[in-house]
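Blinded run. Sample ID left blank on purpose so nobody reads anything into the name before looking at the predicted structure. Input follows.
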Amino acid sequence: MEHAAGTDDGAWIVGRDRELTLLTGLVQGLSSADPTTELPGTGVLVVTGAPGSGKSVLLDEACRTARAAGVRVLRCTGCEVESGLPFAGLHQLLRPVLDLARELPARQRTALLGVFGLDEAEEPDSARNPLLTSLGALTLLSDLAARGPVLLVVDDAHWLDVGTLDTLAFVARRLEGEPVAMLVAARDTAVPAQFAREFPLLSVDPLDPAAAGRLLDLQPEVPAGRARSRILDEAAGVPLALVELARSVARDPRAARDSLPLTDRLEAIFAQDLPALPPATRQLLLLAAAAETAELPLILSAAAPDTTPADWHPAERAGLIRIDDGHLRFRHPLIRSAVYQSATYAQRHAAHLSLAEVFTGDPDRRAWHRAAAVDGVDEGVAEELEAGAGRAQRRGGYAAAATALERAAQLSPDPADRARRLVRAATMAMYAGHPRWVAEITARVTALTEDPAVLAEASLRAGWALAVTTQFEGSLGYLLPLADAAADTNPVLALDALATATTPAYNSGEAAHREKILRIAERVPEQEDDTDRLWILAGTDPLRHRARALALLHADRDGTDRDGPAADDEGGPVRDRPLSELITWGAAAWVLDETGEAVRLLGAALEHLRRSPTGGANATVAQALALAQYESGAWTAARACLDEAYRTAAEGGLENVAVGSPLLGATLLALRGDSQAARTAVRRAVHGVDLPTCRSLQVRALYALGAAAQAEGDHAAAYDRFRAVFTQDGEPLHFHASDYHLADLAAVAVRTGRAGEARAVLDAAGRRHAGGEVSPRLAALVDRAHALLAEPDDAERHFQRSLARPTGDQWPFERAQTRLDYAEWLRRRRRATEARPLLSAALEVFENLGARPWTDRTLAELRAAGVNATSTPGQESDLSELTPQQLQIARLAAAGLTNREIGERIFLSPRTVGFHLYRIFPKLGVTARGQLRDVLPDSLREVPEA
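Blinded prediction complete.
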């Protein structure tokens, strides 16, 4: 059925039934919500299309529908010139409701109003915290939604400032349970990275020929004959082109003859109206296009003294602009572009200078207009931009600061100043959590300066940026030469670079990189603070350097030769240690299989990071903590940390964590028996990733797939996956991660008749291990592998040696697997009495973890051993129905935190927290918050202080 919807300004929407149905459904979902019942499902929709495809018209129609249904609409439109101003788009969106900010918690209020320069409170930590700013925006919108549903409409998102985009993406990911929906429109070739992958896209494609013809038929003067055919061919289904070409042909039938690129053609069409306008009107339009502001008084004050409001009338009559309540709006962004591009350089230069004079009370806008008027370099303007970057930094606008510093660098006449400002821009981009941007900025520094300090800082920033993605070779290409050059003259810089390089070297698994790191490190003398060396030794070769690394870890942890008290067994003083030390110690402890210590140290580091705006570090530490929790048997806590790691990594573009955390999540799914979901999670996580260059991730992906096959009883498929963790020669695919799967390989090898192949791999591992010191955990796993592959009469001593290791209970799942294997061996030798206590102990662990395939196998063995056993789900299993986010909320609520306090901890609105608790209670079989503590396992009951 033909659909032609009328809009407020008389335009018609033709051939967009599908798009209008989706948008109307989104709005109706808000307007039909009953606030007294369960909150509605809400949505985020990203509308993409080419210029002129009708995105803005569709958004206008959605706004009209929403207002007619009683839905509050907040709207902002990106402006190209304001894309460098911190949080300009956010201010435009929230300005009508900023009076609600006074009801926000103090830290959120200070952070949110501070980025707009509207709060003078002396709380610098809050004012500079992007996470608190985003949380303040979310809480404000939640409070507004408590009064009625809200629709957020964001047009021309490709021109929004980065701070606004980051905040909007943060809000969009946390709208579940809120009567709030968000529509975001952007050009299909420039969808902001924050919205390009995670949210559903609605592509506004060109109209089909029939719909294009119907749209022409609705024009005031319907084109016919050759002109109609030419318009249909030239417009290629783009609605704006159809309308404007029809208007152009109506004025002059020759207008459709020339063939130009579509955007250029449309700009040329819009520009045709300009010469007929009076000079005063053209000047006003140019000022409006250059100013990127809708406020008429500001534009008029920049115009010639004899200009009056009546000078706008010709532009209004031509349909170029609309004026309402003292605000101006161009009918389409291409009109603004046509106005600006059709002006001469001298005219544009004069317009920006006039605007700079108007913005004397706004030094940031003044600096940007002065910068737009510069052709070449200008140190004075560069200094103004750099000062503006400092103001943006103090308000937490790191992305805006980076943008201003980039432009300041372009205007710097001195290459040394240009390089210095670029390095500072890279630092701001790093704080903003945009690693690819950091890499782009630092790549320009090398050709500008020979200052070793500036080049060193640039290399460190570039190395960090690539290290947190999956471009490990590129990262090491920056960091290793820097460390090599500094080893003999600047030991602190050398160790800093080497420690940063150790992480990508660990993840890549390449032996050559690790050996080079160690060779350089040997040239650097010992330091009073050798924390970096600890990670270098542990992360490059934990087998060969275990003893030395442990000595450094214990010396640092216990406070040996340091001022201040040593950390006690409860870890109290650990919280007072510098954050960098907590992270380094925790990472080293995890690699060295000091798992309990790793959980404690990384947990303290993560709590510290949650109070600071360092999203990249949050993601990395949360993932490392999740790995340690998984190995220690705290699977439910690990799931919660994985969710936090992924969300933070996705927001910051940290690809290594964004891939690694779902892989560990897939492993947990597989071990709990959800094999299909595990395979799907692996496939999604590794899509587009070159796994052979990321061997740590490759091993984790292979293990998750092998565990999924093993859970289904497909031992042949499991063998193929576990065998791929080692090379054809039996060498580890990854120097550290592979050997922890020797026992898994042995277990499926004996069930598929391939014990000989597995034994060759195990023997090769033994030869490697002889050259170093094996951790108690790895030794127990190797003993289990030997027991499974040994001749029947020789197996028992290996089982007993594995289980006799006193620290083995730190890794309950692995010890339970060994107990089950040993019990099976005993039962087959008619020693059921000895097998039963081993099976009972294994069953308790498997049930508590919710490891259903392993529980079922153990129950079968118990029945075969003469025990009439049934399964009793443990606490960890009871919580498996909760999402990771719901688990976090349950944990915090059980500790006595209010909804508002919980929201501040995990960056949700209080309303969303309440929504989740509404769903959590029936899943856990409780009816009140006070009962939550009784159903949580011990590992989740204690919540560190915020």
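Unblinding after everyone has recorded impressions. The longest strand covers residues 180-187.
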